[in-house]
Write a structure and sequence with these properties.
Shape: globular
Number of domains: 2
Keywords: Oxidoreductase
Number of strands: 23
Structural class: alpha/beta
Organism: Inhella proteolytica
Protein name: Aldehyde dehydrogenase family protein
Oligomer: single chain
Family: Belongs to the aldehyde dehydrogenase family.
CATH class of the largest domain: Alpha Beta
Number of helices: 14
InterPro entries: Ald_DH/histidinol_DH, Ald_DH_C, Ald_DH_CS_CYS, Ald_DH_CS_GLU, Ald_DH_N, Aldehyde_DH_dom, Aldehyde_DH_Superfamily
Length: about 475
Amino acid sequence: MQFRSLIGGRWWEGGRATVNENPSDLDDPVGTAYEADAEAVHAAVNAAAAAAPAWGLSGPQQRFDVLDRVGSEILARREELGRLLAREEGKTLPEAIGEVGRAGQIFKFFAGEALRQGGQVLDSVRPGVGVEVRREPLGVVGLITPWNFPIAIPAWKVAPALAFGNAVVLKPAERVPGSAWALADILHRSGLPEGVFNLVLARGSVVGPILVERPEVAAISFTGSEGVGRRLAADCGLRLKKLQLEMGGKNPLLVLDDADLDQAVNCAIQGAFYSTGQRCTASSRIIVTAGIAERFAAALRAATEKLVVGHALEAGTQIGPVVDGVQLESVERELELARQDGARLICGGQRVARATQGHFLQPALLEVTRPGTRADRVEVFGPVATLAVVKDYEAGLALANDTEFGLAAGICTTSLKHAQHFKRHAQAGMVMVNLPTAGVDYHVPFGGRKGSSFGPREQGAAAAEFYTTVKTAYQCA
């Protein structure tokens, strides 16, 4: 397969060819991606700028029809597209199909949002004057997405951007061009006017500065590392450019003495290790109170050691490969640094040999005995979790909040008192009770606090806050 950029309604020719690797089988490449250059990125911005005025004035029915058509095709092809996603990113096939289904549902939801227009008609405090308050599109928006959810995250940025009347320049992660190309192909055939949606398969170092510097780009939405996010914040701040950031997470799961043991272990395993731990919402810090600690630790270790690591497309695989060799080496390096900093390896952490050559790693569980260690501070973004024991709920809550991140937090308990208190006092944008921290709905806000997020929330009705601007109009009767 060949993956190319889509600019102004045409597939961009040329560019340096790179192999799209299959992390489950290095001898089975997914396809060839063609890297766009700065000229192509500028052309994409020009195309979006030319198309934005007409699309911004398009009717809600037209936007609904396009987005609904996109959502329907994604859902109809979820197994095919899920297989592509699993091959290039490494999620297990059931997880990949689930992600594709979510992308389709996101487009369906925002098709409805195009029709669910809000606004106000008010009387002024001045007699004989009327007031209208409405939301209008921004114009051109730049969207930068990561590799770990290669179709869902583009969907939850592209769909609201289009629903609210904006033109789009999408830059996906270089590691996963296939899923973004498949989405672009569906949008290309959806009846969307040329130039309203543009895909650029290019390096972040090329795309980022252009999106920041071009005045035609009214806003940028970025999901990725905290370091890049902070640089974008500084650059966009100088230009007063609207910005939305979703960055890292170091999410706690607090297990109390009264928790249902099996339920707590399941929450920990799914939250920490599924999707190979490559989720910003992963439960990478597991905190357990002393009364249940011994039983929970033994059960968690046993469950971790039983996890089946293997080819993403093979039936029975629970944990797929790490996305590529660079990320695998990064995870191994963090494991070694964690041990040097005093963490004890309880189990896992070793490479796994399978029938195919891939980036397979057994999920790792680390014990930490003092707060502030590297293992509890740095986002590893792999199948690695720490386990810490605290004396009681109060100590557990304090440790859970002792992080520069604040995306998600979870608690396992049968105590309504502690559940309610945790929901109120956990310093996170999303809180789960007796559920894995990873796993959110598409119709409600997504986002965090502290170093995890900046700007308006993503998803659900909250997405309008970023993708629109408010206009207040006065008229004398």
